[in-house]
Amino acid sequence: MSFQIIASIFSIIGFLWGIRLIFKFRNKLGYGLFVSITFLIGFLFLQNPDLTSVVAHYLGIDRGADLLSYIHLLVFVFSVFMFYLKLEKQKRQISILTRELAIKNSQTKS
Amino acid sequence: MRKNEKLHFIVPFYNESEVLKKTIQKLVSAGFVVIAVDDGSSDSSIDSIIDLPIVTLRHAFNLGQGAALNTGLEYCRRNNIQYAVTFDGDGQHRLEDAVAMFEELKLNSSDIVLGSRFLKSESIQSLPSGRKLLLRLATSFTRLQFGLKISDTHNGLRVLGRRAIESIDFQSNRMAHASEIYWFIKKYKLKYKEYPVVIDYHEYSLNKGQSFLSAPGILIEYFFTRILRK
């Protein structure tokens, strides 16, 4: 199987995952849209690699390969950001739990 | 629940076994109620104060000073405590300053009185110039953001009245809480006042304090706190 076929299957799975996020979790609409659109663009570029050059020229970038690098970087930064956000939310929940335990087990000496 | 009008000292600490007992002993001897919050210390800090007549709250693991302060404040909220002081466990704050700030709070019917090093030249003489610059930058950032007339953002000595105790619910676990407090002051229109205080810098507290290297971390933490706030 060529890389194009494997990557296309991967893109379709990613796209469907994004669609699932949109319809299953109402609070993840933005994230679901981001995921599905990213994988859809990836799929289109895989089917027609010359399309990257067309879009790149339209955006004022010399080569299609450069455009892909920029997109990759943006997606990576966004993913790290989302991951950090999730981590922060979990840290908060742990803090609340720790606080509750601390107050519940408070010791008063007089 | 009956109102508790006594002044309560919230003392957060993390691995302060060298100085903690002395700091808390001084407060207890003066007749104040102390709420010591152990932020998951791994040394013998807690053992050093185990015999003292105080309230002890223990975090199962280290979360940060903001989280420890919030635990103390939450305890105050639930026990209807009317006045609280946030007082560092490393012994750099002066009891007489806290008492004077409490008097100021009652005199002006303020919601919160904030200690400031920059209103008293005596306090900043021993402060290294790098630290001074860092504090000035942090203060400018806060002033710019909230439009509040303040001179010292990262000063841990604060006296809070009941309205402030109820309003201030830190979301920043670590040092960004020192900037976050102004968000609460602005949002809830808390009546605030600054009061000149002296910070006793010694090698121990300077080694544990913030440096330029901690500034980016504080900014990132503050940024995410703002994003996650509902």
Kindly report the oligomeric state of this protein. heterodimer
Whole-number tally of structural domains of chain B:
1
N- and C-termini, Cα separation of chain A: 76 Å
Structural class of chain A: mainly alpha
Let me know the number of strands of chain B.
Answer: 7
> How much beta of chain B, percentage-wise?
15-25%
Biggest chain-to-chain interface with counts: A-B, 19 and 24 residues
Radius of gyration of chain B: 16 Å
Order of helices and strands of chain B: EHEHEHEHEHHEHHEHH
**Integer average pLDDT of chain B:** 91
Question: What would you give as the CATH superfamily of chain B?
Answer: Spore Coat Polysaccharide Biosynthesis Protein SpsA, Chain A
Task: Tell me briefly what this model is.
Chain A is mainly α and 110 residues long. In chain A, 83% of the residues lie in helices and 2% in strands. Chain A is elongated, with a radius of gyration of 22 Å.
Main traits of this protein?
heterodimer, A: 4 helices, 83% helix, B: 230 residues, alpha/beta, Spore Coat Polysaccharide Biosynthesis Protein SpsA, Chain A, 7-stranded mixed sheet, 10 helices, 44% helix
